[in-house]
Amino acid sequence: MKILLLYPEYPPTFWSFKYIMKFIAKKAAYPPLGLLTVAAMLPREWRLRLVDMNIDKLGDADLDWADYVMVSAMSVQKRSVLDILERCRRLGVRVVAGGPLFTSTPEEYVDLVDHLVLNEAELTLPSFLADLNQGTPKKIYRTEEFPELSVTPIPRWDLLRLSKYASLTLQFSRGCPFDCEFCDITALYGRKPRLKSTAQLLEELEAIYQLGWRGSVFLVDDNFIGHKGKIKKALPHLVRWMQGRNYPFTFITEASINLADDDELVELMVEANFDRVFIGLETPDEESLAECSKLQNCGRDLVAAVKKLQAAGLQVLGGYIVGFDHDDKNIFSRQIRFIQESGVVTAMVGLLNAVPKTRLWERLKAENRLCLDMSGDNTDGTLNFIPRMDMEKLLAGYRHLVRTIYQPRYFYQRVCKFLEQYQPRRRRPLQWDEIQAFLRSVFYLGVLGNGRSQWYFWKMLFRSMIRYPRVLPEAMTLMVYGHHFRKVAEKV
């Protein structure tokens, strides 16, 4: 059997970092971890090819070669998915589809693909493969159960061109104990966090280490600290593994704000070389937090929590939302103050969107407030429901908010505030590719740049050399990020 594993193209989004790939000589930020994991579940005698359309163009010859195309996607990749399915239909190629997009809205694709293998592949893929072997594959495979991750294999990294990616991705756990109204994680993966064994995690890290990977590794868990007890038991083993190999990786992950309540956990993560953590901060408005059941954020000083984490050596990447029913006309200026005061440089501000299968989706559907199909990108200035606030005021306020926080002056102020707070645990030796990236940033932003952004680039460079020499690489990286974020803001 010849299988073409196909990953659709991402549009330029906040998290795609598309506009800075030229600075670091990469093609994409992250590889398709789900497809690589599925590939490891397929029979070893099958011939596999991977085409990541964020890296390579998809040719008709690729499709003609395949007995089956297996495609996985998230909702933001929907436009590319529809193009792929049309090409497969035209060429008569059979398609097996799975992943978050298809699991959330299977009714949209049931007539466009040959087979839907939904939910988590550890449970549904074996049934499909068994039926396929008997010549009796069904249209849809799904389950209401959640698999133990002990059965999850090591991803097929050999199918990738590793050098084309800015970071590799691994997964240690699935699920989140919280139940935020707008989030579909609990619907897809449950509220009981499921973890791989520590041995599995170290085996996966050893695999990419042996392949020669050095640098960033994104642990893409829905909430890395969802089960604090088990994480605390695993981290000392990870610390020893990292120490024994002279810290080959830096880790980024996602967590909830209650991380700031646990000094022992923060210390273990920093010692293991975690240096960035994404946290859903959402809003400074307590009523809106209660409205969306973001209870872990309620009744606490969010700015102080962020500063505490950054002082410990964890750069906080923040997620923010406007469009809640309790938001009023002052929310936009309050969000700007909230973001600026916290020193969160990478601040993703999105419009609230109702994702299928979420409690928000069900509530708005019952209130007859759903109105449009969602794009999957909550930073593109669109929303798919009728808000309480006047629609035009909400959209105008959102545009003003995003463009303000990514103006060079506001962005520069946040970088400076962050650098004043940030206390990294260890200083990384610069790699040659990082030096090259720095020189490219000087050329593109310092020489070819224009207007205020060029001025603030040089100001940041000299300020960092004088006041923050220990974190100069981080300062320059953030200024490059600012270039990408301004491009995204211009789209809005």
Question: Mind explaining what this structure looks like?
Answer:
By secondary structure, the protein is α/β, with parallel strands linked by helices. The protein has 3 domains: 2-141, Rossmann fold, CATH 3.40.50; 167-405, Alpha-Beta Barrel (TIM Barrel), CATH 3.20.20; 432-491. The protein is built from 19 helices and 14 strands. The chain has helices spanning 21-24, 33-39, 60-65, 78-91, 100-104, 121-134, 185-189, 198-210, 228-244, 263-271, 286-291, 302-311, 331-342, 359-366, 391-405, 408-421, 432-447, 451-467, 472-491, and strands at 2-7, 47-52, 68-72, 94-98, 115-117, 140-141, 168-170, 173-174, 194-195, 215-219, 249-255, 274-282, 315-322, 347-351. The protein starts with a strand and ends with a helix.
Q: What key phrases describe this protein's structure?
A:
492 residues; TIM Barrel; six-stranded parallel β-sheet; 19 helices; 14% strand; globular; single chain; alpha/beta; 3 domains; 14 strands; Rossmann fold
- Residues in β-strands, percent: 5-15%
General form: globular
**Secondary-structure content class:** alpha/beta
State Rg: 22 Å
Low-confidence residue ranges: none
> How helix-rich are the residues, as a percent range?
40-55%
CATH homologous superfamily descriptor of the largest domain? Aldolase class I
**Main sheet record:** 6 strands, parallel
Which CATH first-tier class of the largest domain would you pick? Alpha Beta
The number of distinct β-strands equals 14
Short description:
The chain is an alpha/beta fold. Helix content is 43%, strand content 14%. Strand 10 (215-219), helix 9 (228-244) and strand 11 form a beta-alpha-beta unit.
